[in-house]
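Problem 12. The chain below contains 377 residues. Write out its predicted structure in token notation.
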Amino acid sequence: MDPLEVLVIILAVWVIVYLLGQRLPLKKYGVDVNPLYIMYRTKRLNKFLGKTARVNQRFWRIFANTGIAVSIIEMVLAAYFLIQNLHRFLYVPQEAEPIVPLLPGITVSLRWFPYILIAIGLALTIHELSHGVIAFLERIPVKSSGIVVAPITFGGFVEPDEEAFNKSPLVSKLRIISAGSLSNMVAGLLAILLTFALFTSSSGVLIMAVQDGGPAYRAGIRPWDVIYGINGSRVSNLLELALFMYKVGPETPLSIETSNGIRNVVTTASAENASRGIIGVRELISYNSMRVGEINTQFSYHLYTTLSWISLLMVNLAIFNMMPLFPLDGDNFVHSFLRERMKRGVKEARILLNSIFLALIVLNIGFSFIRYGLTPI
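Solution.
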């Protein structure tokens, strides 16, 4: 099913659920139905968070203290990267890294939407639960916790008592604030390690679409087949396949090693260049096979892609969240510190830091669009 169709179905189901929620007495069960989200509050999660904080207090104390140090490092690294990247855009643009907001269908293809949804949902859940555990550790009451579901994402939420939080010592505030970012960073690094443990480096080329009636189709090649070699030459990734096919003309017999056996294909002339031979396959992706126990190519592809998006978003969200920008945790972190250490000028300093980081991000995004356009990845 096309990702856009999936999105339309999700939104249609959401409208139905919302309308039903307005008629059913769900609030007495802790369910709050709104146009943009559904929130389920449960005391069981509060008990779970409190129990988790008590199980190994020394571990969580070390975790929380590490979070403060890591948050400061993330803030500095974010500032350094943004400034350095802006300098590259101005003087060596070919070396600059594109920085674009994650907008499915605009800056990122809709094909990645389900994986992004999973990654963001997990990131939000881990982030919020970490805040909750450290809040209990620091003896800050948690008013409510539960699960929130929106049309295109989901996650957990924790609501510490704001008055108690504001009255707590500075170190307690910083521990609670930084816990979410550290948990995302740890989860991202674990996803990277798991990916390396489960999958080999690129070992072939996955076929996502086959031209009906084309050479590959007639030879028995189908979507989700993987090309491992052609005429005895190893094909480990898209580049190797492209380099091999660049030298192939029309009416050339090819023996293609696939995940479903050897397929004998005779190329036809390309519509764009009659001197070039094609086999009639599209939407090709470098494929990473599982090291052991591979079930099928679809499972391997979906698992690898999910882990890749989880690691990418977890690490980047951890760093982005610690930028001193309202309403991110980085702004709360810096504001809590400034309010404790400065007698006056806290508001002005907060506005200045927010303005500097906002300008750096906007300029990097602007130059990225100018140089790379809106072509989705």
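Discussion. The mean pLDDT is 89. Students who got a different answer should revisit the alignment rule from Section 12.3.
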